């Protein structure tokens, strides 16, 4: 739906079809005031998803607010690609780890697609984890949440996973000030990734081998012009069968690699 449709279906509490079937229905004074308030906030650049308090991801509804980044369509490609590879492994009960879960959209979507999976999700932000827990409850998804900086959340365990997945921060610090106005409303710590934007890829790749089962998968989302650099990092480790998947704009967006046998 476009923004006008999203606003009106939200205000009228109806679906898109009902909106057009009742297109001659007017807005009362209170509803008109709500529309006016939403438009004013949009003029100042606030993301519509934050204003409405929710968005859709992988066909599921997620609560969103300033505690975490807004899910993007590109991240659906990350989930779809990883799930396709995971299904090909014919593992009825895969173990999955979502690093930097944010609002929980990746972990929750995978838990819904694989109800028998054991899905864990970590984040350094207590506020983001609370939002993720709310979304797991909203979607009746069984996800275990852990607080910690990437793998540090698992320091006291010997867990190994069939899939480690992450949409990590990947924006260069020097580029933060030039991003679209809407992005300034989102948590900057979930965006910034050092001088070259690759800090989190280095940290994840350096430790991922120790937390993956043999033939386990590592799936990562990347920024523009980063996929090749991430692939080169993976190739230096114990990873093979490295694949790059393009997004809807034909940008190299997702990298999936397999850990070789020890």
Can you describe this structure?
The structure is a single chain. With 262 residues, the protein is of the alpha/beta class. The protein folds into two domains: 3-44, no CATH class; 58-259, Vaccinia Virus protein VP39 (Rossmann fold, 3-Layer(aba) Sandwich). 37% of the residues lie in helices and 21% in strands. It is built from nine helices and nine strands. The protein has helices spanning 3-12, 16-21, 29-43, 48-52, 73-88, 105-113, 126-138, 199-211, 227-236, and strands spanning 54-57, 60-63, 95-99, 118-123, 143-147, 161-166, 212-221, 239-246, 252-259. Strands 5-4-3-6-7-9-8 form a seven-stranded mixed beta sheet, with helices on both faces. Strands 1-2 form a two-stranded antiparallel sheet. β4 (118-123), α7 (126-138) and β5 form a beta-alpha-beta unit. α1 (3-12) runs antiparallel to α3 (29-43) and α5 runs parallel beside α6. The longest helix has 16 residues, at 73-88. It is globular and about 65 Å long. The model has no long low-confidence stretch (mean pLDDT 91).
């Amino acid at each position: 739906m476009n923004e006008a449709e999203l606003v009106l279906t939200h205000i009228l509490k109806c679906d898109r079809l009902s909106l057009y079937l009742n297109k001659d229905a007017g807005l009362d004074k209170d509803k008109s005031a709500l529309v006016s308030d939403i438009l004013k906030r949009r003029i100042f650049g606030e993301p519509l998803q934050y204003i409405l308090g929710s968005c859709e991801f992988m066909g599921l509804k997620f609560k969103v607010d300033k505690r975490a980044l807004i899910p993007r369509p590109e991240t659906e490609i990350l989930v779809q690609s990883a799930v396709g590879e995971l299904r090909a492994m014919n593992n009825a009960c895969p173990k999955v780890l979502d690093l930097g879960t944010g609002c929980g959209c990746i972990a929750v979507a995978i838990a819904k697609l694989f109800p028998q999976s054991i899905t864990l999700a970590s984040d350094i932000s207590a506020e983001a984890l609370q939002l993720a827990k709310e979304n797991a409850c909203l979607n009746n998804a069984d996800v275990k949440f852990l607080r910690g900086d990437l793998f540090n959340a698992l320091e006291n365990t010997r867990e190994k996973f069939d899939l480690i997945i992450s949409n990590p921060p990947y924006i260069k610090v020097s580029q933060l000030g030039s991003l679209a106005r809407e992005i300034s409303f989102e948590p900057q710590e979930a965006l910034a990734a050092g001088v070259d934007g690759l800090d989190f890829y280095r940290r994840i790749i350096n430790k991922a081998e120790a937390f993956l089962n043999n033939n386990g998968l590592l799936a990562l989302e990347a920024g523009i012009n980063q996929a090749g650099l991430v692939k080169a990092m993976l190739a230096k480790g114990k990873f093979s069968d490295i694949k790059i998947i393009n997004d809807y704009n034909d940008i190299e967006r997702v990298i999936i690699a397999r850990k070789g046998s020890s």
